[in-house]
Amino acid sequence: MASLQLYSLCIIFFFCCFFNTLSRSSSDVEIVLRKIKPSLRGGAENMLLSSWSTGIPVCQWRGLKWVFSNGTPLKCDDVSSPERNNISLFRDPTLQLVSLQLQGAGLSGKIPREIGELSSLQSLYLGVNSLQGNIPLELGYSSLLSDVDLSGNFLNGSLPLSIWNLCDRLVSLRLHGNNLSGSLPQPVLPNSTCRNIRVLDLGNNSFSGEFPEFITGFHRLKELDLGSNHFSGSIPESLSRLKLKKLNLSHNNFTGALPVFRQSKFDFRVFEGNNPGLCGSPLAKCRGSSGLSSGTIAGIVIGLMAGAVVLASVLIGYVQGKRRKSRGGDENEIEEGEDEENGGGGGCEGKLLLFQGGEHLTLEDVLNATGQVMEKTSYGTVYKAKLADGGTISLRLLREGSCKDRASCLPMIKQLGRVRHENLVALRAFYQGQRGEKLLIYDYLPNRTLHDLLHETRAGKPMLNWARRHKIALGIARGLAYLHTGMEVPIIHGNVRAKNVLVDDLFVARLTEFGLDKLMVHVVADEIVASAKIDGYKSPELQRMQKCNSRTDVYAFGILLLEILIGKKPGKDNRTGEFVDLPSLVKVAVLEETTMEVFDVEVLKGIRSPMEDGLIQSLKLAMGCCAPVASVRPTMDEVVKQLEESKPRNRSALYSPTEARSEIGTPF
Ligand SMILES: *[C@@H]1O[C@H](CO)[C@@H](O)[C@H](O)[C@H]1NC(C)=O
Ligand SMILES: *[C@@H]1O[C@H](CO)[C@@H](O)[C@H](O)[C@H]1NC(C)=O
Ligand SMILES: *[C@@H]1O[C@H](CO)[C@@H](O)[C@H](O)[C@H]1NC(C)=O
Ligand SMILES: *[C@@H]1O[C@H](CO)[C@@H](O)[C@H](O)[C@H]1NC(C)=O
Ligand SMILES: *[C@@H]1O[C@H](CO)[C@@H](O)[C@H](O)[C@H]1NC(C)=O
Ligand SMILES: *[C@@H]1O[C@H](CO)[C@@H](O)[C@H](O)[C@H]1NC(C)=O
Ligand SMILES: *[C@@H]1O[C@H](CO)[C@@H](O)[C@H](O)[C@H]1NC(C)=O
Predict the structure, then answer these.
(1) If DSSP codes are grouped into helix, strand and coil, which group holds residue 382?
(2) Where in the cell is it found (predicted)?
(3) Who has greater pLDDT, 330 or 518?
(4) What residues line ligand 7, using a CB cutoff of 6 Å?
(5) Quick check: is 23 in a domain?
(6) Do both 30 and 56 map to the same domain?
């Protein structure tokens, strides 16, 4: 091992010396023209590259920045600079290349080895081209390189060991979306800290091997993306020592217990799609020392129910006042091996009740699906589950205390199964086990919640201007209006809040978790409502009475609309402990004539007239929905009508979903 490292060191030093000598003999301009240009363009004539020509002043060569060897930069932007139009400047042997930036330039060749001869090169940006072949070993000899972005090409082969020659200078290394393979090479020097590196993005490649633990010694690292590779093994605890702002370890084959991150700041998506053995917050708890986080749904159902059996049967016994004997375990797969008395009564237990759009599902599919905990809510646990055929569904296992007798439960389930509306997540199937455990099977939507969109500060999130927020608000209002009046029997949502709104790339909002309070026995439903004391969406009468109705939904919608307009979380702030009362905030602002200041700054972007763009009307509407006296609140149908009338004029942003937030405030 030691001799191998020594050997590599020798090679590295050999190359360093070799190239230092070489670069004295050919100037950077020569390297650019004779080696880099023909290699990058890969045959075809390229518009940008053709500007690199002795017939054109150096200042007009696209994508290049230069410095003279005495350290003065070549000032091409300065109109008065004598060098700007100097057609013979390319002959100057002291001209050295500092930066090569040709992103998305349609390049189809290879990265030439001679790149390593550019001794002053600091940044190399060749992302989003069609470059092929390897990353040349020589790249590691451009000893001043600090920023390298080769993302989005077709590079293959392994990452050369020499890359860590750049360790001390390197600030960002982005190789996302190539086809690089093999394990990551270890820096030759032990305990390398690469003290300047902030960004290491190796995502969406074919890297394999163990988690590259040496990375955890890069103590300034802020962004680490190893997602969508073939890494395996466990994730070292030392990772939690890094003060990472962004992390992506999804879609690998990592297993074992996750490190404990301070303030549990990463959500499950950072770790999803790994070996089912990966566990620990924010994924499922590790069980015992083996640490299983997920398994087949049948396993989850049995496991959870076994744990909850005592509690559940006590509760059910209390509510029902009696128990019935089971009729024996017939074809029911998940109850195998259980011979205790159990609370039957559901009537459809052991069978999958299918609704429109769920016809393809079978009980076997569902119970054999591999589940992963996405979220725990007051009504139970939500899993993302992969079916054997490759499809994905969302499963909700209701907590204990759900209704049990056929008469009250099934009609409600069937009613929920009939709800089909663009702004409501569709229930596709329902399963009830013999103990009364209930699985609700929904479409899986890989979308973000409105709560995330509004309050999480992750770079790359879409900008939320007024047109987009209006579309989201209108979607929610339409969904609620449909629940209240679009069906024979009205459905009360009962839990309107930003976390229960999914938003897709085109800003279509979809409500989840509607009607679930009706599936709980009364005591439990009341307990859920009552326990949500810190919840800012709760209407005044609900604080006292604990019964949801359409007017309490309208109130919650009003708060949600304020949240959309103002950009602040309602209710108790977990960090400061303060209670944020959005309607009071607006009242104070109106009194102090600072109404425009309550809006989120992003909302006001591109707004010419808050009146004509419907902003003020929407604020008034939201306040009307939050009226303390329930009877003066509008109905959801009225809300929809008013929102439709207050559409923003400029809605062009709605058709460019990829436009991202600017990354103001990030330190790199
Ligand atoms: C143009 O650049 C060359 C090489 O640096 C130099 O010798 C020459 O004097 C410059 N010409 C003008 C007009 O500045
Ligand atoms: C890399 O891709 C090229 C084709 O672009 C192929 O010829 C070569 O064998 C590949 N190398 C590796 C190591 O996969
Ligand atoms: C991953 O890279 C491939 C090309 O190598 C690309 O087609 C795909 O869209 C990328 N996926 C993600 C999630 O970036
Ligand atoms: C990536 O490389 C592997 C072999 O190393 C090859 O099988 C696969 O097709 C390549 N993928 C792409 C997108 O080029
Ligand atoms: C590297 O770190 C390990 C433990 O952190 C230490 O035992 C070892 O001596 C260090 N090696 C060098 C060369 O500093
Ligand atoms: C993932 O790792 C496990 C061992 O931890 C191994 O059995 C399995 O084959 C790996 N899966 C893939 C797709 O590499
Ligand atoms: C992680 O990266 C993959 C692509 O490599 C992407 O699809 C996914 O959204 C990323 N997840 C997070 C949490 O950033």
Answers:
(1) strand
(2) Membrane
(3) 518
(4) 203-204, 227-228, 248, 250, 269-270
(5) yes
(6) yes
The predicted structure's pLDDT at residue 409: 80
On whether both 487 and 427 belong to a single domain, the answer is no
Which atom of ligand 3 sits closest to the CA of residue 203? Answer: 14
Answer yes or no: is pLDDT of 414 > 60.
yes
- For the chain, what is the mean pLDDT? 80
The ligand placed nearest to the CA atom of residue 153 is 3
Q: How many angstroms is it from 249 CA to the middle of ligand 7?
A: 8
Helix axes 636-645, 615-625, angle to 10 degrees: 170
What's the pLDDT score for residue 30?
Answer: 93
Contact 220, 241 (CB under 8 A): no
pLDDT at 643: 93
| Ligand 1 atom nearest residue 91's Cα | 4
Q: Is the dihedral of CA 216, 218, 224, 230 positive or negative?
A: negative
Residue type, 56: I
Q: Please name the residue whose Cα sits nearest to atom 1 of ligand 5.
A: 191
Q: Is residue 204 part of a domain?
A: no
Q: For the residues 141-169, what does the mean pLDDT come to?
A: 93
Q: Percent of the chain having pLDDT more than 70?
A: 80
Is the pLDDT higher at 370 or at 636? Answer: 636
Q: How far is CA 349 from CA 294, 320, 516, 535, 558, in A?
A: 24, 18, 19, 35, 39
Neighbours of 288 (CB within 10 A): 6
Q: Is residue 300 part of a domain?
A: yes
**For residue 569, what are the domain limits?**
448-662
What pLDDT is stored for residue 124 in this prediction?
Answer: 97
Nearest-atom number in ligand 5 for the CA of 189 is 13
HSE value, Cβ hemisphere, 13 Å, CA-based, for 113 = 5
Instruction: Give the distance (Å) from ligand 6 centre to CA of residue 299.
Output: 20
Number of structural domains the chain divides into = 3
Instruction: Report residue 378 CA to chain centroid gap.
Output: 23
